[in-house]
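#struct-pred

JT: dropping the chains for the assembly here, can someone run the whole complex?
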Amino acid sequence: MKYIDEFREPRLIAETSAEIRRLADPARQYRFMEVCGGHTHAIYRFGLKDMLPRNIELVHGPGCPVCVLPMGRIDDGLSIASAHDVVFAAFGDMMRVPGTNGSPLEHKARGLDIRTVYSPADALKLACANPDRHVMFFAIGFETTAPSTALTLKRAKTLGVRNFSVFCNHVTIIPAIRAILDSPDMRIDAFIGPGHVSTVIGCRPYEWIARHEGKPIVVSGFEPLDVLQSTVMLLRQLERGEARVENQYRRVVPWEGNRPALQAMAEVFTLRSYFEWRGMGFISQSALAMRDEYAEWDAEKRFSIPGIRVTDPKAAQCGEVLKGVLKPAQCKLFGNECTPERPIGALMVSSEGACAAYYQYEHRKSLVAISA
Amino acid sequence: MCLAIPGQIVSFDPALAHSATVDVVGVRRKVDISLVEPEGVSLGDWVLIHVGFAMSKIREQDAHDQMRMLRSLGETQAAMDEVRGYLDDVSEGKGGSPP
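RK: done, full complex below.
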């Protein structure tokens, strides 16, 4: 655990921690899910778990886009690059994610033209700069990232850039939350809502969680004080028997979201009838596909894809961890067969995944303690 | 994956629509401002940048707080690598840094 003096406004943090202890009913067990992978990372990094009473458990949700991407999609993307001699452009986060026959980085070593880009717009620039090559952008991300891909596609269409396409893997957060709530072994009392996704979608799309499921949700910032304040807001709602959507991250998140971003997404994307999530299976209407007007820039329509399906090993219990039924270390594979260096399950794949974060900050700590 | 990087708008290029140069701790790059333009952006404004696009306008104090938080999350390097990695110009054969 870090010392709270290292954080901004340590006095306020101490007061907020005290308020959490005052509000938490010692006779009750609380399970709060932080939906966003960024929160998971911050919670471990800042040791926030240690600032909460033992009866408040933070459950790490599905909000890491790298983690939830099925391995078959990576295989499909790489097979397009290989079979059609196209440039495979993707964010750096994707480069070490294993496919069946290795990661994009390993495919690069074998001669595939794999490039890291930091923006979808840069993949388009790459296509403009190399008119004799086809550049395919391997798009991943939630609603935080999807508008950037949408605007890039609009620009490609306006400019008439024909040697550019997108392999679209964008997913949407609400159906994933719904899938978790619909699960019979679900044990979540309330949600810490995602910060940056909400800059785009706003707070309104969460209202059903409060209204129909009776669960409070607070959209939260990422600083220690933000997460602690959000915890206070959730506890206050539970104490009063309320279930509402609240916005703790008002300095960044407008209640209505970002209208131009939503417009661009609506113009370019449509909902897929279903999409597979690693660790969660098929979830209906949970991902974005490109509209027919963008077929020319849609790698899935432009190239034949094998449609590879790779199931996670049965022993991997990612789904149970996601629903809060198991803690990362309770999975049979955790730390043995499944490590950040050789991930088997979805949640070990990226530093924002629950198991990878737990491994980095908690598991290593316990190993040091044992060997000391 | 979901880094939000604070930057200050330091210039607009009249020849390039929906684009502005931002300064992120001394590193200057062009970013797309389509998503914040409707609410109005001026020189000196602070924005949160994600994958080369300004996502929202923020106050200066919040920008400094965000940078400090990236530092304490150990993500400054990743953020600066991202900003430095944005391609400014489109010239033959350039771009797409090795992973």
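JT: nice. Chain B has one domain: 5-85. The longest helix of chain B spans residues 60-72.
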